[in-house]
Amino acid sequence: MRILLADQHATPRWALKTMIEEEPEFELVGEAVDVESLQYLSILHCPDLILIDRELPGGPIDDVITALHLLDPKPVVIVMSSDPGHGRLLLKAGADAFVSKGEQVDWLLRVLQKYKKTIKDKEELKK
Predict the structure, then answer these.
(1) pTM for the full model?
(2) What is the domain partition of the chain in residue ranges?
(3) Contact in structure between 63 and 94 (CB atoms under 8 Å)
(4) Residue 99 backbone dihedrals phi, psi, to 5 degrees
(5) β strands within 1-127, DSSP E
């Protein structure tokens, strides 16, 4: 599964990058630090899944989610936030999933595994 990571903070981005790179079934295809680089890398790399920080600079997260869902092929968009109270609002804005940055890494891995299976099943249906 091809993953694009978007977080403006270097330390959490490094931690997520390290976790993703340790999983053989995941491929990190890019790292964005703002909405502009996210849009560019999304078009360039066609990721299966985008893991994005809710406070990514460059535009309202609702607009970012909408724009990402217009890509073809349409990526899964998982939004992260350090405030678990944002979950419902982000899902309402169109995020496929929400992950609290305060959760254990195991939880994020389970969410990524779930979507890996969903993406793989979609690919099988296309054949």
Answers:
(1) 0.90
(2) 2-126
(3) no
(4) -130, 130
(5) 2-6, 27-32, 49-53, 76-81, 97-100
CATH number of 2-126: 3.40.50.2300
Contacts of 27 (CB under 8 A, 6+ apart): 1, 2, 3
Question: Cβ neighbours of residue 90 under 8 Å, at least 6 residues apart?
Answer: 54, 61, 65, 79, 81, 98
Instruction: State the amino acid at position 30 in one-letter form.
Output: G
Specify the length of the chain in residues.
127
49-53 β-sheet, strand order: 27-32, 2-6, 49-53, 76-81, 97-100
Q: How confident is the model at residue 26 (pLDDT cuts 50, 70, 90)?
A: very high
Tokens of 121: 């099943």
| pLDDT of res. 103 | 75
- Element (DSSP H or E) covering residue 84: none
List Cβ neighbours of 32 (8 Å cut-off, separation of 6 or more).
Answer: 4, 5, 6, 7, 38, 40, 41, 56
Residue 118 Cα distances to 11, 15, 37, angstroms: 29, 25, 26
